[in-house]
Write a structure and sequence with these properties.
Layout (H helix, E strand, L loop, with lengths): L12 H16 L9 H8 L3 H13 L3 E4 L3 E4 L4 E4 L15 E9 L3 H7 L7 E10 L2 E10 L14 H12 L6 E10 L2 H7 L6 E11 L2 E11 L3 E4 L6 E3 L1
Parallel strand pairs: 3-10
Antiparallel strand pairs: 1-2, 3-11, 4-5, 5-6, 6-9, 7-8, 8-9
Helix pairs in contact: 1-3, 2-3
């Protein structure tokens, strides 16, 4: 069977159009601006609507466009940077206004988190749910798992819902943070992820798992799910989440 070299493969029409549209997004449109309808765009660039749709699909996949029901196709904001390099360790919720606590529950964590926490299989932990939005659109959701031993003062706090979630994070910061480890992997949005992030189930996501240590124990584990079309990995010593 013969082989085809990359140089011999012609560039698809939609791929060339994608490059042209990408340049137009930079020069002719503002972030959040609604694009003309498909008929007008196809006429403007002299292509078939099927070719245009393929190019728009690719730009949406790359995070350059956002399609919102009842609104249309808009120019997406720049991607949010997820810092994964050598950063200054800090507790989740420590002077980080980008994240908003939205819920709390006490339950058994997933098996992988249980192993990171060094907990027993039937142990329940405090679980804080946080979300991050940009330009009114959700870009990330996070679950922070905190063992009861890490927040002993929580029993004296009379609160519920988001208020209790914030209380857990405040109590966690009373500990001395001695280390933080992060891992990143590519994943697919679950049904819950999709609902939280306004994506379809199976959409690509970045899963960032952070393990926080105090003394000889794991004090907390955070599992963040980021929309792959709106986020990018950054490396360096800047720390935190960067608005790219």
């Amino acid at each position: 069977m013969g082989t085809t070299t990359p140089a011999a493969v012609p560039e698809p029409k939609y791929w060339h159009l994608k490059s042209v549209l990408s340049d137009a997004l930079e020069s002719d449109f503002e972030v959040g601006e609604i694009l003309p309808n498909e008929r007008d765009l196809a006429a403007r660039f002299g292509v078939a609507r099927a070719t245009l749709r393929q190019a728009l699909d690719q730009l949406e996949l790359e995070g350059r466009l956002q399609r919102r029901r009842g609104v249309g196709t808009t120019v997406a904001p720049p991607r949010v940077g997820v810092a994964v390099g050598d950063t200054e360790p800090r507790w989740p919720g420590d002077s980080d206004e980008a994240w908003e606590p939205v819920g709390y529950v006490e339950q058994q964590p997933p098996a992988a988190v249980t192993r990171l926490l060094g907990a027993a299989a039937d142990d329940k932990v405090h679980v804080v749910r946080r979300v991050r939005a940009r330009h009114g659109q959700p870009v990330a959701a996070e679950l922070v798992y905190v063992p009861a031993a890490s927040v002993p003062g929580l029993t004296r706090i009379d609160a519920e819902g988001p208020a209790l979630a914030r209380a857990v994070l405040r109590e966690l910061q009373r500990l001395e943070l001695q280390g933080q480890e992060r891992t990143v992997e590519l994943g697919s949005a679950t049904a819950d992820d999709a609902k939280e992030l306004d994506r379809l189930p199976g959409a690509p996501v970045l899963v960032v798992t952070a393990r926080y240590t105090s003394g000889d124990a794991t004090a907390a584990v955070a599992v963040g799910t980021y929309r792959a079309d709106t986020c990018r990995l950054t490396f360096g010593e800047d720390g935190g989440l960067l608005a790219g």
